[in-house]
Amino acid sequence: MQKIQWDDSLSVGVDAIDEQHKRWIEHYNSVVGAILSHGGTAPVVTTLSFLLDYTDYHFTTEEGYMTEAGYPRLEEHKGKHAELREAVSHLVEDFEEEGPTPALEDAVETLLGRWLVAHIKAVDQRFGAYCVQRDIDVTA
User: Fold this and answer.
1) 78-98 pLDDT, tens per residue?
2) Superfamily name and number for 8-133
3) From residue 53, how far is each of 89, 92, 136 by CA, in Å?
């Protein structure tokens, strides 16, 4: 499993969203650390549950910014967020039932780590460009 390092390629150009993405990455890295430490199921489930809560907070905030900005792809973006919320919820359930199996470790890396990077670079950066082009100030 690989932790994610923040770099400028992950910036969407909107400080408030970038800061939340940095926090999300910190939480993801905590999940990876809990899994790699082999400290049992409880720390992983606790950390994943916290990440699920933070994901809800971040997505709600981001969708609020999109609503205020009149972002035309809001519904599409919400659909992608809903997919990840469901995937994280299933990961928590699976960890509670099965513990940190290699398949679940791969799922965490794929569904959370790779999804996040791909989502930021393809979807969130599109919203950032929309805000920059229209000089929309998105603040926390």
Assistant:
1) 998 898 888 888 887 887 788
2) Hemerythrin-like (1.20.120.50)
3) 10, 12, 28
